[in-house]
Amino acid sequence: MLSPEIDAYRRRVEGAAEAIRSHLPPLARGAGPWTGAILGTGLGALAKEITDGGQVPYLDIPGFPISTAPGHTGTLHWGYIGERPVLALEGRFHLYEGYSAREVTLPVRFFGRLGVRDLIISNACGGINLDYEKGDLVIIDDHINLMGVNPLIGSNIEEWGPRFPDMAAPYDRARIARLEEIAREEKIRAHRGVYAAVAGPNLETRAEYRMLARLGADVVGMSTVPEAIVAAHEGMRVSAIGIVTDVCNPDHLQPVSVEEILQVAAHAEPKLTKLVRRLLAS
Question: What torsion do the CA atoms of 35, 37, 43, 45 make, to the nearest 10 degrees?
Fold first, then answer.
């Protein structure tokens, strides 16, 4: 039996999906189900690749949270990239905005009710691995959850997924290999790496960067992992790509501003768009 809180959450998710379902066009014959995309900090340009569709602000989706983070416009887009039908969220939610882990991942549940089975997640992240440079792409191979919360805590909705989902491979290995192949063909600097998720909103101290490196993290950020956990629970195939926006060398640590992070993300974004566009085409 569901707790009243989880039952209210389920009705909220289903209400949001029902409100949008009537706006979505019938899928073209042979196009397959919708692919979902979550576009992170300063990475909304992929939405411009979507054709033959429409958009709606989060404000107009009943029960949807409102994005307040810099570089997150808060718009749902739908349409096609090539022949692939895509639902793209331009802007995500974070724990540091005051949202719960369930609210942060509400868009993934929303995608699940609309039939999304493939999910692509992007983010801006800090480089722990000192072989990485600003503007490099990181194809996420695994993650470390240091946020202190898990979006699956509470009553489990069995029709959405199992009580104890397996996380042996939260990011699809075939997709990782394909992204690496595309990056080589396009001569894009891209690494396969481990993403550590922290709550934020402050950036880390020198001691914390050293700890993260010892734990095996290649990059660090304040998103992605809650969405990946819920997508795994939903049985979705997940790919995640980060843009390294600053290098976190604890021995030569320099202050970094949000403006710098957005600038690096914007400069590197065309590479990410090219990678995702080719992935969808394949």
Answer: 40
